[in-house]
Amino acid sequence: MKPVAVEHEDLAGWGVKAPPVRSARRDRQDWRPLPERRRPRRSPKLLPIRTPISAKGKWVLYVLSFAIPLAAWFVLSEAKILPPEFLPTPEATFSKLVELAQSGQLWPNLWATSERVIYGFAIAIVISVPLGFMMGTFQAAQALFEPIISLVRYLPVPAFIPLLIIWLNSVDEPPKIALIALAVVFFNTFMIADVVKSVPMPMINVSYTLGARRGEVLRRVILPHALPGMIDAIRVNLAAAWNFVIVAEEVNAATGLGHEIMQAQRFLRTNEIFAVLIVIGLVGLVLDVALRLLRGRVGRWVV
Fold first, then answer.
1. DSSP labels for 168-232?
2. Which CATH number fits the domain that encloses residue 215?
3. Cα–Cα distance, 39 to 294 (Å, whole number)
4. Residue 40 above 70 pLDDT?
5. Which residues neighbour 84 within 8 Å (Cβ) at sequence distance 6 or greater?
6. In a domain, 57, yes or no
7. What is the pLDDT of residue 252?
8. How many CB atoms lie within 10 A of CB 257?
């Protein structure tokens, strides 16, 4: 490319009047200076967003999550702000827990409650997992089932207790198991459907491009990608099953942890109620940790 001065000389040689060359002015008032680039702010050292913490720090926080409530319980109970009938001391509670375990009163009730949870939760899983998988995969299934499930899931589950007794013609185990299944099935269905919907559509399209059939896409793409999230949904709703089994055992139950709580409530044995609640919490914690480990093992490839 010729410089501007040479081009002007060429134009003058041909008898063409060249336009005047305007020099760039740097003192124009209408030119706005470029904004200064700011240095990126450093992330705060305290509670950074989604930044991994060390294993030591994680274990310290684990211990604090139990130590802080336990210390608050000890201080409030020892300060006698509330009478022992309302807030027993940790010493009285753990003494009662040891007594229940040594006397053999705890284990039959724990097994009876666990058995009801196993049966009711298994029924809910058998129904909700395939149904949620269909709703998350096929829009026709979602359009068919979502409206009615959205309506039913807002109905209070304890209100179904008299209906279940009438429908099943029993006041023994069937209504209790059905109540647990009813409390879990609809929420688990929606959570499974949401997990399946989160499978990236480009991944599915690439599978079709590579020659995969629909069955192979369902079995080898959607299911493996959604499986960790499905385990998380099951883990969350397992807690709901343990919550509602106590409600179910308040109706004509001769055994179970819920029955134990009702018997202790009649005589204001709050230390026994606290002891049973601790047992339920420990069982739930063990199940939660087990499902977390399972989730981490089957979902190493999913972020």
1. HT-SSHHHHHHHHHHHHHHHHHHHHHHHHHTS-HHHHHHHHHTT--HHHHIIIIIHHHHHHHHHH
2. 1.10.3720.10
3. 43
4. no
5. 77, 92, 270, 271
6. no
7. 78
8. 25
**How many domains does the chain contain in total?**
1
What is the DSSP secondary structure assignment for residue 158, as one 8-state letter?
A: G
Whether residue 75 lies inside any domain: the answer is no
Q: Say how far apart CA 222 and CA 132 lie, in whole Å.
A: 13
Phi, psi angle pair for 69, to nearest 5°: -60, -35
Tokens for 124, please give them: 């809910």
- Which position has the token pair 């006041």? 171
The pLDDT of residue 172 is above 90: no
What pLDDT does residue 182 have?
95
User: Which tokens is 58 given?
Assistant: 């994680």
Name which of 10, 3, 84 is nearest 272 in CA terms. Answer: 84
Can you give the pTM of this predicted structure?
A: 0.79
Range of the domain at 231: 88-298
Q: Which residues contact 89 (CB under 8 A, 6 or more apart)?
A: 74, 77, 78, 271
d(CA 205, CA 236): 31
Tokens of residue 151, six digits: 């309506």
Tallying the residues shown for the chain, one arrives at 303
Which burial class, exposed, middle or buried, applies to 153 when counting CB atoms under 10 A from its CB (0-12, 13-18, 19+)?
middle
Give residue 133's identity as a one-letter amino acid code: F
Give the side-chain half-sphere CA count within 13 A for 18.
14
Tell me whether residue 257 is in a domain: yes
Phi, psi of 36 (to 5 degrees): -70, 140
> In this structure, is residue 54 part of a structural domain?
no
Instruction: Compute the distance between CA of residue 190 and CA of residue 136 in angstroms, rounded to an integer.
Output: 9
- Token digits of residue 99: 């007594």
Residue 151: CB atoms within 10 A of its CB come to 10
